[in-house]
Design a protein that fits this description.
This protein is of the alpha+beta class and about 160 residues long. It folds into two domains: about 1-120, Immunoglobulin-like (Sandwich), CATH 2.60.40; about 125-159. It has one helix spanning about 135-159; strands spanning about 1-5, 20-25, 25, 30-35, 40-45, 60, 90-95, 100-105, 115-120.
Length: about 160
Amino acid sequence: MCLVPKCQSPWAGRIDGAYAFAVNGEACRVLNLNRGSRYYFNIKQPLPDGGYNYLNHFYFTADPLGGPSNGFYDPIKLECTPDPVAQGTICLDITDDLPSHFFYQSRDTQAMGGIIIVHGERKRKQCLQGHSGCTISSHYQKGKEVQQRRIHATKATKQ
């Protein structure tokens, strides 16, 4: 993970600063990660003049823009992810707690990063209703079917 001139980014017009995050040299690259895997991000921010930029802290968020919102520094960091860093290596475990997509961004400048798409199913956990081996989404689907049957039954009795 390094910095490249923002003109290489598809979001160049949205970036307030001069740089965008690049993964393997590609600005704002879409990352396809697998649930249950561990990934290491080596954050380096060398500048073309040989110095280093410590102003953009890399982090993971549900906010597609990242950075400060409405001029206030209040980043929305995803739970279960590392704290924002400007330099160094961080480790990210793609657990069941993470959503199917989220973003890597700068907490200090908007639109410097890109999207992370998580592949793989979440492991089945005991649902809130106490049934083992089912997911909340399966209850949603079952509830939807029951609701549809109720609607059809109501229509049939009214006719």
